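Project channel, design review

CF: Before we commit to the Acidihalobacter aeolianus constructs, I'd like one complete example in the thread so the newer folks can see what an input/output pair looks like. Taking AmpG family muropeptide MFS transporter.
RD: sounds good, go ahead.
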Amino acid sequence: MIVAALMGFASGLPLLLTLTLLQAWLTQAGVSLGEIGLFALVGIPYTIKFLWAPFMDRYVPPLLGRRRGWLFVLQLLLALAILLLGQTDPHRNLTLVAVFALLVALFSAMQDTVIDAYRRESLADDEQGLGASLYVWGYRVGMLVASGGGLILAQYAGFALTFAAMAALMLPGLVTTLFAPEPNTHKPLPPDLRTAVVGPFVEFFSQRQNALLILLFILLYKLGDTLATTMTTPFYLQLGYSKADIGAVVKLFGFWATVLGGFAGGIGILRIGQYRALWLFGLLQALSTAAFAWLVYTGPVLGWLAVIIAFENFTGGMGTAAFIGFMANLTNKEFTATQYALLTSLMGVPRTLLAASTGYMAQDLGWPMFFVVCALLAVPGLLLLTRFRGWLQPAASRPGEPA
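CF: and here is what came back for AmpG family muropeptide MFS transporter:
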């Protein structure tokens, strides 16, 4: 369980380095909103994790075993990429900034793929729930350190030193990888690469009548919420909030609202069922996204910022809990790594490919209408949810069984 939490930290830390922290750096450097929005494309590796997952299932590095061997190499490369990103200069060479940001995202996404497989293979079936909770807790702490801690440190020490500090914080992940036990699944490796690649997809699509609609729902459910979040850091800075304000209120205070929201979401799913939870939490997510428009009229008032952040992060935590539970029920244990990589890759599409246009949307629509439009984008996913009502109930099929 300790390993799950520490690996969660190593997984969560790099994510916001190429989102929140990098956006703040680019905004301070005078980069246009349109170009900042395009930087969402460096997150493309998070949307294609299923491409390399079969290779990591099939091949074993020469040292430390299949899972730990891959992890150690990737974590070393990730720390180096973070360090080099901090040495670039947005004023002189924006392309070089994009290249190293892309490398950070690539090694981070590859690390996530191995960590998901490690956690699944290391814990017994009745330990998966607790292990996932501790992993998410560590993941949130890593995100908090990278975003809240990173912004506060950048306020006083500059971005180069901040990225160097973040690279050094990959050390706990490396130490965990060295000393953690290699999981033993008592199952042979896939006999060939074709089996590792094709098997998980054949099982997923052949056993579920609504497979394509399920994938479309995963793409749409958090679309508006994710697109809005992509541009919130430039939004706060343009309103007049300082980096320290954003770090303290948006990241540190917001972290606890997200954790409490996730806990409330888990309890809510047990009380009202998964179908109604997805509906209710999705509606609340949309309302909290629209609420950001109110900050345009209040101006940089910390009290209002705290209220909106508490509402948005709490409902976002609830929606994420229901969403992750939905995806977990779709995964077959025999193909967990690749199937989970497929689902989480789709979940990451809005954060990367679709979010690339958000800077231009904000420029053309203005901030109030931008957040209202993002809120309305939740509607298609909620309507699609009605197609799953027949089987998406508390007593529905167990994880791995046909839906």
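RD: helpful, thanks. Residues 394-403 have pLDDT under 50 and may be disordered.
CF: The CA atoms of residues 295 and 305 lie 7 Å apart.
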